[in-house]
Amino acid sequence: xxxxxxxxxxxxAVVVLSIALVLFFxxxxxxxxxxxxxxxxxxxxxxxxxxxxxxxxxxxVVVMLYSVIVFRSRPGDEEDGPGIRGISWLEIxxxxxxxxxxxxxxxxxxxxxxxxxxxQPQEMEVKVVSAQWSWQFEYPQYGITSSELHLPVNxxxxxxxxxxxxxxxxxxxEFRIKQDAVPGIETVLRITPNQEGAYxxxxxxxxxxxxxxxxxxxxxxxxxxFDEWIREQQEID
Amino acid sequence: MNVVHSAHTDETPGLSRLYxxxxxxxxxxxxxxxxxxxxxYYLKAKTPVWPPQDVVLELPLIALNTAILLLSSVTMQMxxxxxxxxxxxxxxxxxxxxxxxxxxFLFIKGWEWMHVDFQPWDHAYGSVFFTLTGxxxxxxxxxxxxxxxxxxxxxxxxxILPLHIEVGGLYWHFxxxxxxxxxxxxxxxx
Amino acid sequence: xxVFFALGLxxxxxxxxxxxxxxxxxxxxxxxxxxxxxxxxxxxxxxxTFTGLLGFxxxxxxxxxxxxxxxxxxxxxxxxxxxxxxxxxxxxSFDTNxxxxxxxxxxxxxxxxxxxxxxxxxDRVKNMAPGPWVLDPGTYNSAISVHGITMLAVTLIGISxxxxxxxxxxxxxxxxxxxxxNAFSYWVIPPAGILLVLSFFVGGHDTGWTAYPPxxxxxxxxxxxxxxxxxxxxxxxxxxxxxxxxxxxxMRAPGMGFFRMPVFVWSTLATAFLQMTxxxxxxxxFLMVALERVLGFGFFAPEKGGNVIxxxxxxxxxxxxxxxxxxIPGLGVISEIVPVFSRKPLFGYKAVAISSPGIxxxxxxxxxxxxxxxxxxxxxxxxxxxxxxLVAVPTGVKVFGWLSTMWLGKLRLATPFLFVLTxxxxxxxxxxxxxxxxxxxxxxxxxxxxxxVAHFHSTLFGGFVFPMMAAxxxxxxxxxxxxxxxxxxxxxxxxxxLGFLLLYGxxxxxxxxxxxxxxxDFDPSQPFQSWNIASAIGSGLxxxxxxxxxxxxxxxxxxxxxxxxxxxxxxTLEWQVASPPPEDNFEELPQVHDDPYGYGVxxxxxxxxxxxxxHTGNR
Lengths: 237, 190, 619
Fold this sequence. Notes:
The structure holds three protein chains of three kinds. Chain A is of the alpha+beta class. Chain A contains four helices and ten strands; from the N terminus they run H-H-H-E-E-E-E-E-E-E-E-E-E-H. Chain A has two domains: 3-70 and 93-117; 124-236, Sandwich (Immunoglobulin-like). Chain A has helices at 3-27, 39-70, 88-117, 223-236; strands at residues 124-131, 134-139, 144-146, 149-152, 157-163, 168-171, 179-181, 187-191, 197-203, 215-221. In chain A, strands 3-2-1-5-8 form a five-stranded mixed β-sheet. In chain A, strands 4-10-9-6-7 form a five-stranded mixed β-sheet, with helices on one face. The longest helix of chain A is centred in the N-terminal third of the chain and has 32 residues, at 39-70. A two-stranded antiparallel sheet of chain B has the order 1-2. In chain B, helix 1 (17-46) packs antiparallel against helix 4 (124-156) and helix 2 (59-84) packs antiparallel against helix 3.
């Protein structure tokens, strides 16, 4: 069989496998249900990158499997194969194309990051205090402190993260983005929850013996329910 | 003298492998100090008052110490030159002088350590001050041991080894060069 | 008995114990004189570590050669004494022959792998079910930390073994540039490894191998053992790097220009530069944490004006290039094996060769991608994202080169080649997932989750573990003069490949779904359990597969089929000498004419060997 024949079969197989994988990633949810506006560019990036990765993965696996089956040496054949040392245009191409792709991805990622960290109008500040092994949330504009994080839906929030003892990390998987809380420094995380519901914040940086259990309740509710909760907390305090 | 004549050895032509090895080792050691300088300048950039208020350094004394160390590089180079001219006595004399100057440097350093007003556990500045000067001092000490070894060998064996002494000189000059960076960072730029 | 006490290792252990005792006694005496209680484990073991190391080295005889040189003595005395002992004692002693040292490294690596592996498996078992069972949280955290750091040491030791054994042979040299330094570099490893193992038993450490302060400053005594143990292992890396580079620059056979060197030699060059330089950063960073622990220094202590993130910069400045140290040699092994079993030239040899230093150089500027969520300046994340993604390009050059070598070749599916095939697929998965992580917004979701654990185990298995298995099956005949059994090899390969898939595939899934890494327990309401059970089964399969390797080695090393000089018909120089090679490798140095990949190219010859008149090439 001629080289071009082999190449044609392989190309078809790569295309088929790639399409199958891309369809999978586009349709099967591999992440928890998104609950913040910041999750949108993250999830889009996942789908995009898994699709690109699927193409490259397909190329590698198909070429390898095909070679192992079709180009297996016949028993007793001690001869060498064709003495092809290289093909310049091909080598240049497979250096340039990945270069262009990754640079484009980096630009896209940078733009997405910019949109996620820029300050929003009328952000609500919440001070997060992390210590081995629990979370405290302070609402300066309401004068209350709680071990639960309540947030009104669609309200941009500026979380100011503090750590009293060791490095911790604030993460609600449904919100996607996480941020370390570092002793001696106040770090920030901007979140705009857009789905009402009950979530959990997990500490995502190994912080000692009970790191696994360092969690806290997160409640995203309507503005009215949130205001009610604030009033209750103020009465307690 | 650091060049190899390939007819007599397995080595490729050019610098001898001992010389190449030392150059590489010194490249590695520059990364060691790189870590400490990174620490110094990172903390400096992130700290409003740097050095802290209680830090008073004896610039004149340490400037003198710097001159002593620089002089020791001169004497070490004299040793290298004497070795290349096959003058064993002059080589040994110059290396002993180098060791004496190095020893004085360490003594003055130690005196400074005892007399500054801050300790390494007082604050981050103290920690990096003592660690940076301490690791430099350790390298001077290692250099003294190295030069001592070369001196003993030169005394005990009739055949002089200019290559080895030159490689030792490389190390000694490196330690001197690092000190210039340390001195500039801690005492001039501050 | 006389032989027993003549063994370097035995004398070393005695020397080490005496040295440690002296160091600890000194600390006790000083403390008593200062009016303090005599015994405090932290300073005592800190000083004892270094005096013990010195005692160990003196005991094994690592310093005597240099001291004798200073005194003007002769080299020969030591050799005369040694030749009265049986041959096998060389492997337990201070021996300057690079082949002995290479085997010492490889065996040591496997020994520590059999300690560190089960620790990881223990954690997989724990994660099969939520709630407290089988392990307590402290032991779990320690197991994860010790597993991590010991496996990294295993990798450093394993690559040193491969590079030390193969490099002089491949470049047509008789030994390394500095044979005594080479043996010294090996002998700091047993004390380092012992410290890492001991760390688990003296309180462990609950920080992960990354040892971030402030947690690492408060961690139990095991933390100190780990910090110092890895520091000492770092000495081996640094000195070994100097030796490898000097050997490549200065000891190549006549005619071996840079573009006639095997790719494994290029890989060694790139790796050696990385390990020689960046290791200084982790050594110093670990030492700085130790100084904070024992003496109250304040580099990373905010209350003393220190900075927590500074540690992460210093640490990752080494630890990212470190991962390229771990994988570049293995990728070099792949580049050697693919052409031999495809009977075709390595496609794009020059590009593949240059890609090793390319990866090393590119990988030097990406460390910030471990810190995207750490609290560094927002804008600083962007350049690191770009540099991180760039490293995909030289990596891709290698992968496409290998595939093109196989394409249209005549493939022989022997065990070394099977392991290489798995290595390539697994490494590609690792690399592609690395690109996903390189994009900051995506990383902010997956950092510190099991996705990351799956990613780096994919790159480590693809770039080190599977290639090292391939290397063992490939070069065992050369090293021992016997063949390993293909049947057992193929079972090892199949079980390990399947086991790997089961072990790490699920981790990508649970990571995306929200499972953090390094957690003793998980919430049963999260959908992790079935995936974790699959992982645990996979880990068991991997472990069982390794038993097949051990059995194969034990059966074959004395009773395996006798190996010809060149069973795989490879062109590189190590295959042109006897199996095992003679003491000084080559009677007369070879004359090199071209690169070693001219399979199927009419008239191509890698080198000519004057002593046999043979040449390695096409008739």
